[in-house]
Design goal:
Two copies of one chain form a homodimer.
Chain A lengths: L1 H19 L2 H8 L3 H7 L3 H25 L6 H12 L3 H14 L2 H26 L8 H19 L5 H18 L4
Helix pairs in contact in A: 1-2, 1-4, 1-6, 4-5, 4-6, 4-7, 5-8, 5-9, 6-7, 7-8, 8-9
């Protein structure tokens, strides 16, 4: 029932945005009584933060499975595809609603700030692992950070219109840049 | 009076976010009567779209003036600083509120979509001009796109917490990458 509530929350954030996502809408979508919902999540804030956190973790597990099938050659391009896909996924658009709402809501920012930093750290560590590099060599650390800022920017661009074609050419040339610039371990 | 209304709108979007920005709040902040406001902007949508459009154009004029003082050596790093500054400015955070609201509001998206594409094209052309490169050479076009996606991603990261130090190191190493990778004209 917790999981159903969290899934309904992310769906509601994606379809209706922050303002349209109310605890009433979520309990209806999840088919859960108001009382049961309040038992699990006493407020909208508790619900949305838990939902974005849990589904981001689950999405990372999915990515891990995708990564197992990466070919040895052109591996970097495949890694970029996996990373970029995270930033055009429903849970990214749900998180975007949450981050933007938190910018002007101090109470929300108190829980969203630490969550955003944790997700940022974990995504960074995951990118390093996927690329199979040693972060302490050359500019590797900054290149990984730039890569994640890049795919975050691409995700934001994709939130308003279909940006698939442009994204593919940007990632192609970015993969070539990383191929030349990363210091292999 | 139009300008005062548009400035009050951007300030309100930055401080109160999309939901907190009402035509009443804006007319109070601007010190303009409701009637006069309705005469200039018949709806919240007309007001916010005009405000973000006008202030983005004005901000680009400011950037142009900054760019005149760029030194010849280490020019690329200076250009990156100017471009990145656009994406941590009040008008970017106001635009972010608008883009995100438009994602789940089809009516708003009809005016925001074309505006977002126009700003994107103009910022791209402006970046090419600042860098002083020929877009048709090598991967220059994709590198400029990647640069703008990168600074957009940095802007989003800066919306929740002070990210100044990390941003500087990412831009330092990105400038070095562009120095090596751009095909000079």
């Amino acid at each position: 029932m917790r999981l159903r509530l969290m899934e309904a929350t992310v769906e509601s954030l994606v379809e209706l945005g922050w303002a349209g996502t109310t605890t009433t809408v979520v309990s209806q979508r999840a088919g859960v009584s108001r009382g049961a919902q309040l038992h699990h999540f006493p407020s909208k804030q508790a619900l949305v933060v838990a939902a974005v956190e849990h589904l981001t973790d689950r999405r990372r597990d999915d990515m891990r499975r995708h990564a197992e099938g990466l070919p040895e050659d052109d591996r970097i391009r495949g890694v970029l595809e996996i990373l970029a896909a995270q930033f055009v996924s429903p849970v990214f658009f749900a998180a975007l609603e949450l981050w933007v709402a938190a910018r002007t809501d101090a109470g929300l920012r108190e829980s969203v700030g630490p969550l955003e930093r944790r997700i940022g750290r974990e995504t960074h560590a995951y990118a390093v692992e996927l690329l199979g590099i040693d972060e302490s060599r050359g500019d590797n650390r900054q290149l990984v950070q730039a890569t994640l800022d890049l795919v975050r920017g691409l995700g934001l661009a994709a939130s308003l219109s279909d940006d698939t074609k442009r994204r593919a050419t940007v990632l192609d040339s970015w993969a070539a840049v990383l191929e030349r610039e990363l210091d292999p371990s």
